[in-house]
TrEMBL record:
Residues 1-21 form the signal peptide. Residues 299-333 have a biased composition (Low complexity). It is found in: Membrane. This is Receptor-like protein kinase 3. Residues 353-628 form the Protein kinase domain. PROSITE patterns: PROTEIN_KINASE_DOM. Residues 297-333 are annotated as: Disordered.
Amino acid sequence: MGAAPFLLLLFFLSVATPLSASPGEDLHLLEFKRTLRNSAALDATWVGGGDPCDRKKAWRGVDCSDSGYRNVSAVLLMNLGLSGDVDVTALGKLQSLRILGLENNSFTGTMPEVNRLSYLKSLFLSGNQFSGEIPPDYFGKMGSLKKLHLARNGFSGSIPPSLAQLHNLMELFLQNNEFTGPIPDLEQATLHYVNVSFNNLHGEIPANLARFGASAFQGNPDLCGTVVGKPCQTAAAAAAAAAPGSSGSMTKWVILGVVVGILLVTILFKAKKKDDDFTMLRKENLDEVIQVNVPSTVRRSASSRRGSFSGSRRGNDGGSTSSKRSSQHGRSSNDLVVINEDKGFFGLQDLMKAAAEVLGNGGLGSSYKAVMANGVAVVVKRMRDMNKLNKEAFETEIRKLGKIKHRNILPPLAFHFRKEEKLLVTEYIPRGSLLFLLHGDRGIGHAELNWGTRLKIIKGIGRGMAFLHTEFANYELPHGNLKSSNVLLSHNYDPLLTDYALFALISNTQSVQALFAYKSPEAILYQQLSPKSDVYCLGIVILEIMTGKFPSQYLSNQKGGTDIVQGTKTAIGEGRAAELIDPELSGGATAEAVEQMERMLRIGASCTESEPAKRMEMKEVIRNIEEIKA
Ligand SMILES: *[C@@H]1O[C@H](CO)[C@@H](O)[C@H](O)[C@H]1NC(C)=O
Ligand SMILES: *[C@@H]1O[C@H](CO)[C@@H](O)[C@H](O)[C@H]1NC(C)=O
Ligand SMILES: *[C@@H]1O[C@H](CO)[C@@H](O)[C@H](O)[C@H]1NC(C)=O
């Protein structure tokens, strides 16, 4: 009994070497390597006694987290021709391991017991020769799993129903296996990618998975559902077939090129447990049913270059009458006006085949993603309170926005104007928003957000803002709604600004106040706005990127998140600005790099000065940003 504290002390003395891998992690990794075959590619760096987390001599495929100790958080051994056994027991000793990737190797046999690593967030096993059945309850204890990639293997049997219990699941890659049986009901609102194509599945495609589009289900001849153009013989399908205007069969539709049908998609969103600021923000008001309808008989006229699209929205209690009514609107009121043909022309046919997915509900309205049959994915934004201008003036304004060609600005592609409803269509950008990347899933994506990438993002945002401030120099708010959720990222992390220059269109005071510029101190205190309010918003984004923290300024009640404006001010005042920089950036960086990061932080701080007069002009901010080097 009495010896215990002493032993504990000894233990600490022997292991407490901060900022190195925790004791033994090298040994655990080597133990894991022992049962691999063809692992010569690891020999050079995986050396006993070494530190797998040593930044100067990193172990191949090993990534580490910071937490006083640096612990192994990811093992990513892709494309190495590895085979042999996956020693799950050895991996289980790596307490911080969250990501396991063995994609594109030559592993065989049944699914290893990776489910013993119950805290894994990402499991990438695609492109091997695994086979056999995965037990039905296999995933029951893997509640943290967000990404599961098992594509291009030989898995057979049913898709494990326990996948439905993974409340955080975002990506599910099961394509090109030999799965049989039905697709389980996966109702997670978190899912944003599902692919089960090229298996031997049969039965009905669950309604809430239809949003992933036909290509996610192809190569399964026995699957049925509207999304694959092969209705199942159910009551719902019969009802749809009886709807007015859809008397023609699918074949007729294809042959005549006449659009027949009504339903795009119905999405049920269930409010889920809220566990952090980010999900809180994202899931506000998502508890609703949304239905988007396309009128039943409209012929496409190639010369008119117009398609049709009409949406209607109803609460949980609404019947289908409202949707039928809207589907009978005359053609003129249903026009989808294409104003930018960079992504080609699209119209009713394309949108009809598309399945929609709710992306979020912002202050100005809700957004949906629709993947069209031609593979082009678009975002349809349904805007509230946009009746300040009549149709002509609205069109002129939107066309102005649509004409913009700048590598950091995402222009609208099409719009729809009816008194009750405005829709704005833009290209869908798969990587998603900066908000999502910074705070959504602190997995792989985050590790890629190194200093060079973040600087590139800030510079791109700056260039986009500079352009808007020139183009719309006479506008009170040239952007008006800059925040990380309105910055999308291309595949190579070029930022794209959206939701800009809408201030002039919005009629309702409450909606106008949903613009983030209204969170600037001068707007809150004196209802004053100017292009300097955009400078404030840019400052918030810069601080957010540099600290990696979720700004409390984004939340309506400011409860939660971090007050990065005050935090930065205080830290700079006390001469400890460097401490605020996201440790994933500053850790291991050279003194020069940290100095550049600090300069960027100071730019963000000066943009968020509470008095507009003390803030730099946008041009000057951009000049300062451009001087910073990676
Ligand atoms: C990292 O490893 C140390 C030592 O094993 C442990 O005390 C610490 O909790 C680990 N950190 C995390 C985040 O798991
Ligand atoms: C694995 O191989 C596939 C097909 O060759 C490729 O598309 C994919 O990018 C590879 N994955 C990785 C992580 O390299
Ligand atoms: C699903 O996977 C198949 C096969 O790899 C591919 O052709 C298809 O484009 C994928 N669908 C989606 C939506 O990514």
